Amino acid sequence: MKATLRYLAGLAGPSGFGSNSTAEQVTEDCCSLLPSNLTALITVVEFLIEGATSGIGAETARVLAKRGVRVVIGARDLRKAKEVREKIQKESPHAEVILLEIDLSSFASVQRFCSEFLALELPLNILINNAGMYSQNLEFSEEKIEMTFATNYLGHFLLTKMLLEKIIDTAKKTGIQGRIINVSSVIHSWVKRSCFSFNDMLCGKNYNGTRAYAQSKLATILHVKEVARQLKERNANVTINAVHPGIVKTGIIRAHKGLITDSLFFIASKLLKSISQGASTTCYVALSGQTDGMSGKYFTDCNESNCSSLANDESEARKLWNDTHALLHKRLRQATN
């Protein structure tokens, strides 16, 4: 109840920020302290809804570019991504924004994207696994995997795996701590242990759109927990954390007909965050000095928060990582034969 009241009132937490804080506000003080030539890679699925810039990824890219960070955007639709780049560079003429095509539901596309990025020979300081999708209907990727799970979790798992050594190497060479951020959701806590089966999620068994979305977001937190353990074991100067952006006025919310009906949308919208408020936690964890050394954590409203007991289960995190690694090894080996 206290957390709900704090959210509604927009009260600041220990970080000095709260639910009403915007991405620009949470990065304003730290921008003068940022190292030069930082590079951030951000994945985005959608950009434009009804003619207006819409999406946490686009806003995150805008604010990071405004703070002097080189931004690489991984987007499915390059035409719309170019419109976003134009808007960013109109506001920040010296911003460096690089666009690369990626379809996170496709292993081949993720591999191609990573090859193209590595060929640029840029440093990689920040990786933001932001892209997310919601589908009311059961759909499958080209690898015959349920689309929500493939896009929201598996694609980012493979992307992180393929770029991890680059992030670690950049941190080692520059002395600047690398940061990985997985954008999750508070609805990860809706998932019961009995409903969290790797094979069932792959095939979309007894499909329900909201449940599939929640399961994928739980998986992104478990991914954070296990990779954080591995990074600590390697003594790597890289952190990985999960963030809940809040319930934000984006296209994903419009697609959640089962979560917020049309008749309730107007009332519910008064409780929703703006795009800039939704991007604030991602930007805070990406750039703030207050998050130095923090890894394996879950943030909401720019403050460390508690995730579900299942999301905190280290054995479940390791099991999911092993199952995912085995699946990718098998599928990628088959693709090369």
TrEMBL record:
Belongs to the short-chain dehydrogenases/reductases (SDR) family. CDD domains: retinol-DH_like_SDR_c_like. InterPro entries: NAD(P)-bd_dom_sf, SDR_fam. Pfam families: adh_short (PF00106). The keyword Oxidoreductase applies. Keywords: Oxidoreductase. This is Short-chain dehydrogenase TIC 32, chloroplastic-like. Coiled coil: none annotated. GO terms for molecular function: oxidoreductase activity.
